[in-house]
Amino acid sequence: MDVIETEIPAVKRIRPKRHGDARGWFSETFRADVLGEAGIACAFVQDNQSFSAPKGTIRGLHFQIPPQPQAKLIRVLAGAILDVAVDIRRDSPSFGRYVAVTLDAEGGEQLFIPHGFAHGFCTLTPDVMVAYKVDAYYSPAHDRAIVWNDPEIGIDWPVSDAEAILSDKDRRAPRLADLGPAF
């Protein structure tokens, strides 16, 4: 598998190799040793999976604060998403900036999102299934969100405010400027 830096080097694209023949293909989707050599040394403890039926569903921007922050390794099992990681580390030179990557089941690429980043995605197709590993258990007491369309972050989402399908929690999330220190 190949590990590729993004515009924010802490966020990495992972391209597993696929070995195909007449039956289909085989791929190693996770290798702790290869990721460790690339600086991703997480002990993942929980796997999560989401299904979003309509195109234009937005989930996020979610994160957990210390002492229960979560790093995530995201991949798409069905359909396609625009996957977004926002740097919320106050002392970072890239604070408030984001990385956006299209992930789909056909290509199999993954995105690694370290501690100190908010994560969200928008479904680009109907019937999207996303799977992700995290390195800390879900903790409601540490769970936080930033509003998906914060104008100061300026994410170029593929849907308008009127078209976006959101949970009430995500619609009511605060802006980054109103969040206070998180990392």
From TrEMBL:
So which domain of life are we looking at?
Bacteria
What keywords were assigned to this record?
Isomerase
Report the EC number(s), separated by commas if there are several: 5.1.3.13
What reaction does this enzyme carry out catalytically? dTDP-4-dehydro-6-deoxy-alpha-D-glucose = dTDP-4-dehydro-beta-L-rhamnose
Question: What family does this belong to?
Answer: Belongs to the dTDP-4-dehydrorhamnose 3,5-epimerase family.
Site (Participates in a stacking interaction with the thymidine ring of dTDP-4-oxo-6-deoxyglucose): which residue positions? Y138
GO term, biological process aspect, one? dTDP-rhamnose biosynthetic process
Question: Catalytic site residues?
Answer: H62 (proton acceptor), Y132 (proton donor)
A GO molecular function held by the record: dTDP-4-dehydrorhamnose 3,5-epimerase activity
The record's note on quaternary structure and interaction partners says: Homodimer.
The pathway it acts in is:
Carbohydrate biosynthesis; dTDP-L-rhamnose biosynthesis
Q: What does this protein do?
A: Catalyzes the epimerization of the C3' and C5'positions of dTDP-6-deoxy-D-xylo-4-hexulose, forming dTDP-6-deoxy-L-lyxo-4-hexulose.
A GO cellular component annotated for this chain's UniProt record is: cytosol
InterPro entries recorded:
RmlC-like, RmlC-like_jellyroll, RmlC_Cupin_sf
Q: What is this protein called?
A: dTDP-4-dehydrorhamnose 3,5-epimerase
